[in-house]
């Protein structure tokens, strides 16, 4: 009988202790993981901003490289270098545009979600913890310090030595590694998934917020007609109304079996994981087989082929022919050469001679491109004019008009087809066209054709070798040809040489 009575007494005491634990303060082993999850969620907006910054920077670098190459295609001394730059410039512009397109249509939305959805879950969790930490009196409370007898509250950003700010930090574009977030949820389980009160104090430290069966959360017991259970922290866990027993959501399976149990946390977990999958390094141009890059194939076709259709692509061999193998390495070396080109001091406000690769400002690069384009256009116009004047490819009237406009004696003498007439009283006619001087200077002058007059080509046609004489005709191979043909060939050579000099002496 004594043994039976003793066993009954022990059972009653155990039951009372178990009963007392329900509705009591949470053990530190339960609330500390909540704080750790809150801190990790707090880092996500800044992590998203850091990745966004990296991606936008990659797009800016692509665009800047494209502009530098565009300038180099205008200013490089070597025709081969100008050709390479002309191919790569639209390629890098396209790569930069593709980054922004992907950001707008895909990863940008993921970055926003990775900040918004986890932060919403954090807000729900923080509010719960904040209420718990405030609910402390001399004899009661909702958070204990690891020993059943002591309840704790928040001091600054810490609860009993555990960082738990319970607020959202200022967003900065700096990345902070998280420790609780996984591919399927979190590696923390604050409240056990089996219903019970094992993670609560049994020392009589009541937490009215967790008390549902008596005079607790609602001021009176939740009875029939009311809810059968209460959710806490966006369904992080719940308590039943009859025994105050707690049941936690499986935080390790939020994207699978627990997805419908706690949808707010499931969304937060999915968004958090998606953030981790966004890799800014993938946006950078690091292709080991550039000749297989479809965009590079397309722009190569656009630049090097006349009338290339939109769908036409250059072959890998064509790209290799332009850049040699290994293509990716050769392109990198070429870009390094391009970036080393010096932009003179004073240009676009530069205080020192500056390597092109050090100029990042879009407006400065655009200005350099414009300056180069204007200079080339100006030199082209001057070249065309000089060729016309040097060749004398104009009729006597046009040549005379040129002479009549010259008022400087040096200018008169320098022209191979002008003469100074000292006796002329009209100052505008002192410098006149002199066909004899032009002929002696070796400058051909196109004769004005009139009806019934043979052209030089007609004069030369059919003449024998001994009849084919200057100035109108010249023997070439087996036929008599118009000598102006040979003059034009010389002019073409002269023109090419002049252009080469222009590029070599180019000053932006």
UniProtKB/TrEMBL annotation:
Subcellular location: Cell membrane
SUPFAM superfamilies for this protein: Variant surface glycoprotein (N-terminal domain)
Coarse class of the protein's main subcellular location: membrane
Cited InterPro entries: Trypano_VSG_A_N_dom, Variant_surf_glycoprt_trypan_C
Compositionally biased intervals (Low complexity): 446-455
Lipid metabolism found in the keyword field: no
Chain positions covered by the region annotation Disordered: 442-466
Biased amino acid composition, Basic and acidic residues: 456-466
One term under GO cellular component: plasma membrane
Purpose: VSG forms a coat on the surface of the parasite. The trypanosome evades the immune response of the host by expressing a series of antigenically distinct VSGs from an estimated 1000 VSG genes.
Annotated protein name in UniProt: Variant surface glycoprotein 1125.4142
């Amino acid at each position: 009988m004594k043994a039976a009575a003793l066993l009954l007494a022990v059972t009653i005491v155990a039951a009372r202790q178990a009963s007392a634990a329900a509705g009591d303060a949470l053990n530190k082993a339960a609330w500390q993981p909540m704080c750790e999850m809150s801190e990790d969620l707090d880092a996500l907006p800044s992590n998203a901003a850091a990745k966004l910054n990296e991606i936008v920077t990659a797009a800016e670098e692509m665009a800047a490289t494209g502009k530098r190459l565009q300038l180099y295609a205008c200013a490089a001394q070597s025709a081969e270098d100008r050709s390479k730059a002309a191919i790569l410039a639209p390629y890098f512009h396209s790569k930069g545009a593709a980054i922004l397109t992907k950001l707008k249509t895909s990863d940008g939305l993921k970055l926003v979600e990775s900040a918004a959805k986890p932060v919403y879950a954090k807000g729900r969790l923080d509010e719960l913890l904040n209420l718990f930490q405030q609910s402390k009196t001399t004899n009661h409370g909702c958070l204990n310090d690891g020993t059943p007898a002591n309840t704790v509250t928040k001091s600054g950003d810490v609860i009993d030595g555990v960082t738990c700010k319970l607020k959202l930090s200022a967003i900065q574009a700096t990345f902070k590694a998280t420790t609780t977030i996984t591919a399927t949820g979190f590696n923390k389980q604050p409240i056990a998934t089996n219903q019970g009160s094992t993670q609560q104090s049994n020392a009589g430290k009541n937490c009215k917020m967790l008390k549902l069966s008596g005079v607790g959360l609602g001021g009176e017991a939740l009875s029939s007609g009311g809810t059968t259970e209460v959710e806490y922290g966006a369904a992080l866990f719940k308590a039943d109304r009859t025994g105050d027993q707690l049941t936690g959501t499986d935080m390790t399976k939020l994207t699978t079996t627990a997805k419908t149990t706690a949808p707010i946390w499931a969304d937060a977990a999915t968004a958090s994981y998606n953030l981790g999958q966004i890799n800014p390094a993938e946006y950078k141009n690091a292709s080991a087989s550039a000749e297989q890059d479809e965009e590079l194939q397309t722009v190569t076709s656009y630049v090097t082929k006349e009338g290339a259709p939109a769908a036409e692509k250059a072959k890998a061999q064509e790209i290799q022919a332009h850049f040699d193998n290994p293509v990716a390495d050769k392109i990198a070396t070429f870009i390094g050469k391009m970036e080393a080109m010096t932009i003179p001091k004073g240009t676009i406000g530069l205080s020192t001679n500056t390597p092109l690769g050090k100029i990042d400002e879009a407006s400065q690069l655009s200005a350099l491109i414009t300056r180069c384009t204007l200079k080339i256009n100006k030199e082209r116009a001057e070249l065309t004019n000089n060729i016309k004047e040097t060749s004398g490819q104009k009729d006597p009237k046009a040549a005379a008009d040129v002479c009549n406009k010259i008022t400087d004696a040096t200018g008169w003498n320098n022209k191979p087809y002008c003469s100074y007439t000292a006796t002329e009283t009209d100052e505008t006619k002192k410098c006149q066209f002199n066909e004899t001087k032009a002929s002696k200077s070796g400058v051909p002058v196109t004769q004005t054709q009139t009806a019934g007059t043979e052209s030089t080509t007609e004069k030369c046609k059919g003449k024998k070798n001994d009849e084919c004489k200057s100035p109108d005709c010249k023997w070439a191979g087996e036929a008599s040809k118009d000598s102006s043909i040979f003059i034009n060939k010389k002019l073409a050579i002269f023109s090419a040489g002049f252009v080469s000099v222009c590029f070599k002496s180019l000053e932006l």
